[in-house]
Recover the amino acids of this structure.
């Protein structure tokens, strides 16, 4: 059964998200293309939420009816890179393929350019084999700029990545209710 996308929202993380957080952050399929490791304990997750998620300048929980099912993170640049941010995201496997991540990315796009008025460029890096994530970015209106060959290590493997971007001057995607 498809999820009513009007139930999707983004909000800051709370410590009370820990049980829901473990459902997706404790899943190797979800963390496969993420830089962080799969969580194995509630205590480890609580520490991460408290020390990383809550103080983070722009990390939001993807929620259905206020229950955490994933995340969108924006990593602002500094100094000469202050014009851009990097975006990453992940969502529980049971919600894959339902348009939820695309909606969350669209919401993030509309919010982050308001929250960071000097922002010119949002970019996202995606492993070449992560076809689903590429589709999310394309459907959300980001432009595939090209492939970065042997660009970074991900879980010990040297990976080719695609880079996608969205500029403040691009047409913002419509966020359906």
């Amino acid at each position: 059964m498809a999820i009513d996308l009007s139930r999707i929202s983004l909000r800051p993380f709370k410590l009370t998200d820990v049980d829901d957080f473990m459902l997706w952050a404790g899943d190797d399929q979800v963390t496969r293309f993420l830089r962080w490791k799969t969580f194995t304990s509630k205590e480890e997750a609580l520490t991460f939420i408290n020390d990383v998620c809550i103080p983070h300048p722009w990390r939001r929980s993807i929620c259905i009816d206020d229950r955490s099912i994933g995340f969108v993170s924006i990593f602002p640049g500094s100094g000469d890179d202050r014009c851009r941010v990097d975006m990453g995201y992940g969502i529980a496997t049971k919600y894959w393929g339902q348009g939820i991540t695309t909606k969350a990315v669209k919401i993030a796009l509309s919010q982050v350019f308001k929250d960071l008025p000097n922002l010119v460029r949002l970019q996202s890096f995606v492993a070449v084999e992560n076809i689903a994530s590429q589709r999310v970015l394309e459907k959300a209106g980001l432009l595939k700029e090209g492939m970065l060959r042997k660009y970074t290590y991900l879980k010990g493997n040297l990976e080719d990545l695609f880079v996608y971007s969205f500029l403040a001057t691009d047409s913002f995607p419509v966020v359906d209710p």
